[in-house]
Amino acid sequence: MGKLDGKYAVVTGAAKGIGAAIARKFLAEGVEKIALLDVSAIDPRSFDESGKRAFSYICDIGNEESVRETFAKIYEDFGRIDILVNNAGITRDAMFHKMTTDQWKAVLNVDLFSVFYTCRQVINPMRQQNYGRIINIASSSIRGNIGQCNYAAAKSGIVGFTCSLAKESGRKGITANCIAPGGTNTDMYKTVPQEVLEATLKRLPYGRLAEPEEIAGAAAFLASDDASYVSGQVIFVTGGNLS
Ligand SMILES: NC(=O)c1ccc[n+]([C@@H]2O[C@H](COP(=O)([O-])OP(=O)(O)OC[C@H]3O[C@@H](n4cnc5c(N)ncnc54)[C@H](O)[C@@H]3O)[C@@H](O)[C@H]2O)c1
């Protein structure tokens, strides 16, 4: 028996990195069906050989119309959504004194507005079914990070949003939580300059980045009934790094 037997899940940004690891973990924990959302098509058989449990949906989460159409299709296909993981995200790093309005808007749109768009699609059905698990991927950058005023603002916005949604939704059987990963070994982190990476590794208690699978474990916990009374929380998965 898996922790997520019989559940219907959606993961955004599932093509690679942390999103793909979360989707694989959810499948291993028994989800009935999982919708894999990304900007381009994903081969669902690389997640589930049976072809019966994983499904690919092309969706730009920064576009409200695309999100609305995609979730309408998922509800048509699945009938319900129990678990929503808002994982997709981007960075457009720059020192604030050099940051362009485009860099600011792109990150706020894909990393924060998207969460509003997707949660709007699931909140009423979850309230009606008296059950829901919303997991939003924030970042340890909410504590501030050089070159990431846009990203830290978006991810901090997610935290405030999630804590408010948790308070609004408790009586309806819905939990809402954040995971704040530290530096994780994915393509996103590959954009970090080599000298910054070396300095970071020196100060990390584990002396290494997280692997995406180490973030996925926290998501599976929050999605499961083990976390039925855990809501409005931010779980920092940073290998003991407190800065
Ligand atoms: N890697 C890290 O060090 C790290 C640390 C803290 C938080 N995070 C967060 O974890 C999440 C996943 O990051 P990752 O490292 O796996 O990144 P990644 O770049 O490896 O993967 C991100 C995925 O999101 C998808 N995506 C991007 N824009 C999209 C859009 N508009 N619509 C739909 N899909 C879109 C990409 O196609 C990609 O598949 C992000 O929210 C990121 O901010 C990452």
Number of domains: 1
Shape from CA axes?
Answer: globular
Question: Percent of residues in helical segments?
Answer: 40-55%
**In whole angstroms, how far apart are the ends?**
38 Å
The strand line-up of the biggest sheet is 3-2-1-4-5-6-7
The residue ranges in which pLDDT falls below 50 over 5 or more consecutive positions are none
Number of strands: 7
Average pLDDT number:
97
**Tally of helical segments:** 6
Query: What does the largest sheet look like?
Result: 7 strands, parallel
What Rg is obtained from the alpha carbons, in whole angstroms?
Answer: 17 Å
Q: Give the CATH class.
A: Alpha Beta
| CATH superfamily heading | NAD(P)-binding Rossmann-like Domain
CATH arch. level architecture: 3-Layer(aba) Sandwich
Order of helices and strands: EHEEHEHEHEHHE
Model description:
By secondary structure, this protein is α/β, with parallel strands linked by helices. The chain has one domain: NAD(P)-binding Rossmann-like Domain (Rossmann fold, 3-Layer(aba) Sandwich). About 40% of the residues lie in helices and about 15% in strands. It has a 7-stranded parallel beta sheet, with helices on both faces. Strand 1 (about 10), helix 1 and strand 2 (about 35-40) form a beta-alpha-beta unit. It starts with 7 loop residues before the first strand and ends in a 6-residue tail after the last strand.
Brief synopsis:
This protein is an alpha/beta fold and 243 residues long. It is built from 6 helices and 7 strands, in the order E-H-E-E-H-E-H-E-H-E-H-H-E.
